[in-house]
């Protein structure tokens, strides 16, 4: 079994609260990285907006257009 298959099988067992907690964990880890490595925050705001826009393209396509 590959890693992606394992993750997909595990993710199907999660409910809405679990997914929300995973999102909170990711947010907290992002803040922790920014706290310990300040150069991460030295980019202008539009770089973060661009990265967010690129990151949301595939999930949006798969969930709304398929």
Can you offer a commentary on this structure?
With 66 residues, the chain is an all-alpha fold. The chain has one domain. Helix content is 77%, strand content 0%. It has helices spanning 3-11, 16-36, 45-65. The two termini are 26 Å apart. The mean pLDDT is 87.
Describe this protein with a few key phrases:
3 helices, 0% strand, 77% helix, mainly alpha, 66 residues
Layout of strands and helices, then pairs:
Elements: H1 3-11, H2 16-36, H3 45-65
Q: How helix-rich are the residues, as a percent range?
A: over 70%
How confident overall, as mean pLDDT? 87
Q: Unreliable runs, pLDDT <50, ≥5 residues?
A: none
Rg computed from alpha carbons, rounded to a whole number of angstroms = 15 Å
Count of beta strands? 0
Strand residue percentage: under 5%
- Report how far apart the termini are: 26 Å
Q: What overall geometry do the principal axes of the alpha carbons give?
A: extended
Note the quaternary state here: single chain
Instruction: Tally the structural domains.
Output: 1
Order of helices and strands: HHH
* Helical run tally: 3
Estimated structural class: mainly alpha
For the largest beta-sheet, the strand count, sense and barrel status come to:
none
């Amino acid at each position: 079994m590959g890693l992606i298959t394992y993750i997909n099988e595990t993710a199907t067992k999660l409910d809405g609260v679990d997914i929300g907690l995973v999102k909170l964990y990711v947010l907290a880890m992002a803040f922790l990285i920014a706290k310990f490595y300040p150069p991460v925050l030295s980019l202008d705001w539009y770089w973060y907006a661009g990265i967010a826009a690129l990151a949301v393209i595939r999930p949006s396509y798969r969930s709304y257009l398929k």
